[in-house]
Each structure stands twice: as C-alpha cells, then as structure tokens.
C-alpha cells in the first residue's frame, strides 16, 4: 500500500487522504473502534482517522502489524523484538499506552510465558466472550475484563493458525481459520471442515507456513459472506511475492467450490441506504489498482462479478477398495 483513499457509491474517483504516506512494501492493518479507524503497519507511525477524515498520528502506540479490539481496548501484536507479546491500550482510550496501576490502564502480556519467543500469528476474534489468539501450532484465549484480571490460557496444543488472513467470523459467532493440516471451525468445539479438499487445504497450509518462516511472501484473504466462508489463496512455489489467483468457498456440510482466476487481495462488506443487502468488495491482487464487487444491488437487479465462468468444483473422497481391477464397476450418484 502507498496511500489510503476514501470512496463512496457516487461513481466518482476515490479521494486520497494526503496526510498519510505509506511504504509500498509493508502491509497495513486496521480496525474501527472507539469512534475512529485505527491503522498500524505501512512503515509509518500508527494513526487514526475520525468521522471527519482528520488524521492523528500516535507516537506512543506500539508499531505492530495487526490490530483488533476487545473490552473497549485496542489489541496490537507483531511488534518488532516483541513478537510473542500482546499489547492492550487503556480502556476507552486508543491513545493511552503508558502502563499504570489502574484497572483501566494499558496491559502487556507475554503469550505462552515470558520465556516463550514463538511469534503470535493472529488476533483471531471473539468466541464465547473470550478473545482467541493464534500461534503456528497453538491456540490461546484472553480472559478478563480489566487490568486486574486479564490472563491468557492455552486452549489447544498442536493446532494453531498459520495466517491471520485466513480467519473469518461466522454469523453464529464461530471462527474459521487455516492450520497446518487443513481448515477448522472453532465455536462449540474445534472441528476440521476441509476433509473433502484435504490435499488442497494442506497445500495452502504449507504455503502459509513457508510465508511465516520467511521462505516466501504470501498474503491470504478471507471473509464470511452470505453464510459462506471465502478464502483467496495461492500455492505458487516461488520465493518472491505472488498474489492470490484462486478462491475456495465453503457452503457448509462438507461442500467446497473452487474458483480460478480470482485475484482477491482483501475483502470488505459494505452497504448503504440504497442497497437491499451488503455487497462483497475485493481488491485485485494482480496490481491493476481496481476494486471489484460481487453481490446484489437495489431491490430487483444483480450486478458485479458473478464468477460463474470460473467455477471448478469437485469433491475428494477417501481411498476406496473396489476389489478386482479387471472387473467392470457400476456407480450410482
């Protein structure tokens, strides 16, 4: 990213917010909380944008790579030299990062203990009123309400989150995410949902792990839209940056659909008073600088990229023994 722009449905070009200058090789992350948009990354000092598009840089804020919100605080991870630590702002104050003794004061937690140097991979989201954190091979939960009782507990060993870009929250409040060995849903229990695309899911997981270990540069993107989980990915094997070129959509009950030639670098859902439902917008990862959308506009018409020409759908079964290979078999579906 090199700039941030404000866009609307007027059909006019987007307007660049000139006060912000970003590093084109460094990703940004943002969250809407406490009546502002807060952004970290981009090779610049963290900053916020209010409803009037006024920009305020926050020198005291940790220079992380991910930011979310919980209990009316900002959460930041990915701070250089402190990759295993979770930073939490003061309650109701995203500009307060000075540690203190009040219940509303900022908090810093070493996830996994003070001697655990394994990096936090993802601020995943809220499940059952606790905040879920992911490392490559472990899941943790943040409990508590104030500085007096915040604590992090280990939830699961040997299953973690391998990319923050693969995490999405369902309408039922569960999380879907990519692990080393496939795609899981975590809500009322932890369930693997990628058995029918097992080989593909493991290939995507391996590509994500290689990226986190510095062997490649990948940026996966995901969302939950129209009761489906959408994941944009690539498994291309070169060491330099490669944009996403494929998309898989989980429709529930083991059903996955694969699309090729969809270059989605990120997703966002957006609707206004003139839309009967939210559209799904996505940036194009092949660098053409455009924003695309998929969805219905107004009350009677559907426009946008329908993706119909790109469907390549399949189901992978378990290995089956059909007996004598010289005999003719009959199958029914």
Give a count of the beta strands, DSSP E runs of length 2 or more.
27
Estimated structural class: mainly beta
First and last CA, distance: 49 Å
Helix content, binned percent: under 10%
Are there runs of 5+ residues with pLDDT below 50, and where? 296-315
How do the helices and strands follow one another from N- to C-terminus? EEEEEEEEEEEEEEEEEEHEEEEEEEEE
Sheet bearing the most strands, described? 5 strands, antiparallel
* Helical run tally: 1
Strands in their spatial order, largest beta sheet: 19-20-21-22-27
Overall 3D form:
globular
Strand content: 35-45%
> On the 0-100 scale, what is the average pLDDT?
85
C-alpha Rg (nearest Å): 21 Å
Brief sketch in words of this structure:
By secondary structure, the chain is mainly beta. It contains one helix and 27 strands. The protein has one helix at 198-212; strands spanning 5-6, 15-16, 28-33, 36-41, 47-49, 55-57, 66-70, 73-77, 85-88, 107-110, 122-127, 130-135, 138-143, 151-157, 168-169, 175-179, 182-187, 189-192, 221-225, 228-233, 246-252, 255-260, 264-270, 279-284, 291-297, 301-304, 311-312.
Write the layout of secondary structure elements.
Elements: E1 5-6, E2 15-16, E3 28-33, E4 36-41, E5 47-49, E6 55-57, E7 66-70, E8 73-77, E9 85-88, E10 107-110, E11 122-127, E12 130-135, E13 138-143, E14 151-157, E15 168-169, E16 175-179, E17 182-187, E18 189-192, H1 198-212, E19 221-225, E20 228-233, E21 246-252, E22 255-260, E23 264-270, E24 279-284, E25 291-297, E26 301-304, E27 311-312
Antiparallel strand pairs: 1-2, 3-4, 4-5, 5-6, 7-8, 8-9, 9-10, 11-12, 12-13, 13-14, 15-16, 16-17, 17-18, 19-20, 20-21, 21-22, 22-27, 23-24, 24-25, 25-26
